[in-house]
Amino acid sequence: ERADLEAAGIGTERRTGASNATPAPAKMTVIDMRGSQAHVVTDLRKLDKPGAARNEAEDEDDIAFPELQHNLRLIVDLAEAEIQTMDAKCRHEKDTQTLLRRESERLAVDSERIERLADSLDAVLRLAEKCEVSAQSQGATLEDLATMYGEMKAHYPHEYATHGVHRLAMAHAHPLVAAMFPKDAYDPLAEPTRGVERLRPWRDLLCVGDGYT
After folding, report:
1. How many other C-beta atoms lie within 10 A of the C-beta of residue 23?
2. pTM of the predicted structure, to 2 decimals
């Protein structure tokens, strides 16, 4: 009977199965260094299951390649900080450029104004020198001087009043006026209107603002 069973292969299969049985592997301890904390893993198959190897409450980065995610976040933060710095720098440069442009425009206006003033002063100085030459040569009459100073005041009223040109006019006119009224030959009671017409233009020339020289 046993021979019959062996012939049928029943006994042989049982012995073969018993002899080919693989012994259970010994447990291996592995330290999982992934994540913010290390974990002890006794089953290598659990390495593919982050939830089984780590506690979600302990490691909020329960995803694949947490080191890579950390590095990416660090790179993004650095890039964002650099962008913010560059943006602040660009805005500062734009504000500075705006201020410099306004300052340049203001300086250009001031430069034009000062240049006009310089030209006016130069013209007044040349006219004053001309009047001085005429007065010193004793060839100019009271009417001639009144005409020259009248043109100067009409063309450059600001400079005429600001720089006291009327005082120079009075100094030039004084000898001629004194010659019109000699002390030993002029009686104001007898000739109260002497020189009125000749002196009339000088009223405006010697008047500056609300008063006279």
Report:
1. 5
2. 0.52
